[in-house]
Amino acid sequence: MNANPVELSVVIPAFNERRRLPATLKALRAHLDGRSADWELIVVDDGSTDGTGRLIRAEARAEPRIRALHSPVNRGKGHAVRTGVRASRGRLVLFTDADLATPVEELDKLLSGVDAGFGAAIGSRSGVRRHPLRELPARIGGALIRATLVPGLADTQCGFKLFDGHRARAAFEMSRIDGWGFDVEILCLFARFGWPVTEVPVRWSHQPGSKFRHRDYAAILAELVRIRRLHGGAVRRDARGLVVLLGYLLAAIAVLGRLWADPGRRYLVDGGQDQNQWEWFFAVTARAVTHLDDPLFTTLQNHPDGVNLMANTVMLGLSIPLTPVTLLFGPSVTWALVLTLGLAGTAAAWYGLMRKRLGASRTAAAVGGAFCGFAPPMISHANAHPNFVVLLVIPLLVGRLLQLTERDRVLRDGALLGLLAAYQIYLGEEALLLTATGLAVFAAAYALARPEVAHEKGGRLARGLGVAALVCLPLIAYPLARQFSGPQSYDGLIHGPWGNDAAAITGFARQSLAGHQAVPGPLDAGPTEQNAFFGWPLAALVVALLIWLRRSAVVLALGTVIGVAVLLSLGREITVYGTPTGVPGPWAVMARLPLYESVVESRLAMVAVPAVGVLLAIGIDHALALAPDRRLRLACCLALVQALLPITPKPLAAADRPATPPFFTAGLWKRYVGPGRSVVPVPPPDAADATALHWQVDAGLGFPITEGYFVGPFGPKRTGVYGAPQRPTSVLLRRARDDDAVPAIGDGERRAAMADLAFWRADLVVLGPHPRQNVLRQTLDGLFGPGRLEGGVWLWDVRKARS
Question: What is the SS3 string spanning 612-641?
């Protein structure tokens, strides 16, 4: 950039404008003086013969911020604008016509577009009525331009455009068109380099004295042909975009490659019992679809009380559409497919948002999307929690909110927003709550930084949210009523303090290249809940970007989201390297609010993931704009690699799981279990060992089982806990398992066991392969008499004993 940079450069081409120019310069100066930013006004005399050059030079002598440039002959409007832009020093460059047909007050509208990350914000006269003799040729020309060079732009010729200064100077350096078609050439160059452009509706009025004549349409047509020959058209399949999406898919397959080696047998070992649970969810949903059962409740687990499926995040938005996959290939394949498409789809959705709505270049959007889809918290949850991996609806929601603020189509955009919100509820409510929290923080921070924009767009946004609520609520009212007040509903969820250790923010997750596989320590919350672990190089880069780009209201708002999310994730008391500091965290207040009491507080750090991804995209685009300084671009590239390489994910660990005993796969259980009667697996399935759920799935869900791994109510306050309230017999069996010793068994224990069998409506007790099988078998022999071995399991037929 030239020396002594300014915030805004205004470029005006002038040819024989002595009459109109004084009023224009006065209006511009009055408006610019009212702004806090420094500015310069560059007026380019394009070989005028009416004294325009003398007027400009006189104005420049009176006001040092006005610069006068001169062309000895009339070269054309494009040449004049190119001369002015190349000489500009502004971070932003505004081009406006000398007649000021678009009032300078419309500048604020364009600033919002560029501030949001677009390379250029161009005024659009769509909806403005012009003389029919000018309207028809303009429409034909616009259609031709869209069809051949820059698709998607309704009005390329409005003389009111705001550019990012770096990109504008780079584009105008390469431009060759001197005439009226220069606008199209510049926009074509922006499209060629992947610098997105947004159109902003502006006020416009026809001014007398226009220099454009109808015969100039022939010249423009010739210029369009030349532009096509020089730069090519923007209308072509975005093969590079497809390569980005394919890269995301391949990356997801690489992360889950050990699972895909044999999805029917492989198990993600760091996921605890969650794979068993989720495969059971997918299988139960498929059964509900094919048997026309209630998809919101089942007694196949925790018989006879059952499980409130809506309160257990079964992801009906995916498990129902994927029923054919589950039926044809099994729930294990559905599990692997959901995780893979979740990682890749989330990255792709954020890539699309950054490209189409946030104005990022392809490179910037690709990196930002990759971070959003494959950040350490995402990889951690890929071990066990698809509801925190399949987040592709979230960027669609954000995009629809942005559209609500950009155009006056409240009913359509609000309705689509409501549909997306309803669908996300059927994918994961906690993710939607965290997203809403982050968006609220962003909106508040942005409103403080740009109150005039918030005032202008707030009303339209509020109306759109109202429409969204009217559309969403009828679609979710009944399922949510069942979730919060139906059978086996609960109030809140019990979990211990689970905030992030402060040092974990800059630490490395075990699934990252720079991570470790050691025994969990003070910085390791377990492989499925490593919700921060961004690494200190990335943390340093984020801080540097926030300082560098601090003038942007969007960047300030993103920084606020990151800071608030990280602080809230520290929990009720801040801990550093495993040592409590006694300093209360802000979560101590948040946790008292409705709905938030059930949130695992460390997951608030996930709110920072998309904010960091968008910030990286903005920073990359600003670095790419420094095109002339190749050394600086190289330094920026190295900084990015150093920040992201250490947190690149490693393949998730997977191993073969033991085969299901033939007693279940061969249907031998059918000899013992009657309709509506249950099987008691030993030890009873819970969060520590849910293998019995896998056996039940391999048996075709032909029988219900007792207790299980789910979230249900406990105690008089119906507080949510993992698993069922334990009955005396299940307590006894778990004690035998945990102590590795046969407990004392007397008549009291046997009577309690008979009562429990009657409650469970059990016909059969089954002990499958287990490391402590001998102890458990002796305990069961003491309760029910000698068992017998059949189909790879020990079984006790309790039909006669129960009666």
Answer: HHHHHHHHHHHHHCCCCCHHHHHHHHHHHH
Calpha distance 339→24 (Å, rounded): 59
DSSP assigned state of 207 = -
- 656 backbone dihedrals φ, ψ, rounded to 5°: -70, 135
Q: Which pLDDT score, from 0 to 100, does residue 155 have? A: 62
| Degrees to nearest 5, angle at CA 771 with 769 and 774 | 80
Angstrom distance (rounded) from CA 350 to CA 248: 11
On the question of a cis peptide bond just before residue 451, with omega within 30 degrees of 0, the verdict is: no
Residue 34 CB-density burial (10 A; 0-12 exposed, 13-18 middle, 19+ buried): exposed
**pLDDT class of 526 with cuts at 50, 70, 90:** confident
**Best CA proximity match to 40, nearest among 80, 86, 5:** 5
CA distance 631 to 624: 12
* Residue pLDDT, tens place only, 334-362: 999 999 999 999 999 999 999 988 888 89
Residue at 440: amino acid letter: A
Cα–Cα distance for residue pair 12/22, rounded to 1 Å: 12
Rounded distance, CA 352 to CA 367, Å? 12
Task: Write phi, then psi, for 573 (nearest 5 degrees).
Answer: -135, 130
The whole-number average pLDDT for the span 734-754 is 94
Task: Report the distance separating Cα 279 and Cα 301, nearest Å.
Answer: 13
How far is the C-alpha of 279 from the C-alpha of 697, rounded, in Å? 8
Helix (H) / strand (E) containing 759? helix 747-760
* Span of 112-116, 477-481, 619-623 with lowest mean pLDDT: 112-116
- 713 phi and psi, to 5 degrees? -80, 150
pLDDT for residue 26: 92
Q: Token pair of 401, please? A: 């909110």
CB 151 within 8 A of CB 229: no
If DSSP codes are grouped into helix, strand and coil, which group holds residue 337? helix
Peptide bond into 520 cis (omega under 30): no
Residue 446 and residue 564 in contact, taking contact as beta carbons nearer than 8 Å:
no
Q: pLDDT tens digits for 765-785?
A: 999 999 999 999 999 999 999
Q: Is the pLDDT of residue 136 over 70?
A: no
Tell whether the model's pLDDT for residue 131 goes beyond 70: no
Pairing mode of beta strands 6-14, 90-96? parallel
Q: Which domains are present in the chain?
A: 6-231 (3.90.550.10), 243-271+330-647 (no CATH), 662-802 (no CATH)
295: helix, strand or coil? coil
Q: Which residues of 485-506 are buried (b: 16+ CB within 10 A; e: fewer)?
A: ebebbbeeeeeeebbbbbbbbb
